[in-house]
Amino acid sequence: MEKDIKFFTNGKRIDGRAIDELRNIKIEVGVFKRADGSSYIEWGGNKIYCAVYGPREAYPRFLQKSDRAILKCRYNMASFAVEERKRPGPSRRGVEIGKVTQGALEPALLLENFPKCMVEVNIEVIQADAGTRCAGITAASVALANAGIPMKELVPACAAGKVDDKIVLDLCKEEDNYGQADLPLALLPRRNEFSLLQMDGDLSEEQLEEALDLGRKGCLEVYEIQKEALKKKYVKEDVSNE
Ligand code: UDP
């Protein structure tokens, strides 16, 4: 819902960014010893851990698919992650985000290599500041690579949106809560296809096109950061093994 907020001052946004600028993003790969793959992402004020387990035998067994592995994605936000304490435990919002995360990641994975198995992705939001589903998908994709799950490509994600009738990239909290539209996107960069496209709010057809273009550009920037994070991890390990 739009609130009486001054979204722009001298062409800059509430947090000083240009309309097509991402917040600062830092990704660390391999942060947990007991997970098969893991990552930590800081994206603006978001702080999110991701742990991947598998591929291992799918349990309960009735979930097994004879021709491929299943992908389970769990999204959880800590009670203290938000301004107003969140009720602990599962929520409808969490279930929805787990489901769309699975849909965003699945087309990038070679799940057919592991019949009857499952790959589990756990996303834990420790601090939330808008855009956690995109940050979670971005981190999960890197953690899946760290787990050695065969993949066709990484999946970067990023939101576009509309505030004050302007299309902007990567909404901050005020823009997300009080802006006119929010469009979380995940991209399969090599195929140039979106694997996540949600929309909250109103956009005209032209605005939607503009938001998709800007969102694609944002995802490609996130993609570079994902690749850098993986390179940093493996180049460093190669050096220390010498
Ligand atoms: N949020 C909150 N309490 C909640 C859920 C969300 O304060 O119970 C905040 C949180 O900062 C979140 C933002 O609202 O990042 C936007 O939430 P949304 O459901 O749009 O998902 P997100 O943008 O995080 O993917």
TrEMBL record:
Main location (coarse class): cytoplasm
InterPro entries: ExoRNase_PH_dom1 (IPR001247), ExoRNase_PH_dom2 (IPR015847), ExoRNase_PH_dom2_sf (IPR036345), PNPase/RNase_PH_dom_sf (IPR027408), Ribosomal_Su5_D2-typ_SF (IPR020568), RNase_PH (IPR050080), Rrp41 (IPR011807)
Compartments it resides in: Cytoplasm
Gene that produces this protein: rrp41
Oligomer and partners: Component of the archaeal exosome complex. Forms a hexameric ring-like arrangement composed of 3 Rrp41-Rrp42 heterodimers. The hexameric ring associates with a trimer of Rrp4 and/or Csl4 subunits.
Span of domain Exoribonuclease phosphorolytic: 21-150, 156-218
The species this protein was found in: Candidatus Methanofastidiosum methylothiophilum
Functional note: Catalytic component of the exosome, which is a complex involved in RNA degradation. Has 3'->5' exoribonuclease activity. Can also synthesize heteropolymeric RNA-tails. Catalytic component of the exosome, which is a complex involved in RNA degradation. Has 3'->5' exoribonuclease activity. Can also synthesize heteromeric RNA-tails.
GO biological process: gene expression; nuclear-transcribed mRNA catabolic process; rRNA catabolic process
GO cellular component: cytoplasmic exosome (RNase complex)
Enzyme Commission code(s) on record: 3.1.13.-
Name of the molecule in the record: Exosome complex component Rrp41
GO molecular function: 3'-5'-RNA exonuclease activity; RNA binding
Record family assignment: Belongs to the RNase PH family. Rrp41 subfamily.
Keywords: Cytoplasm, Exonuclease, Exosome, Hydrolase, Nuclease
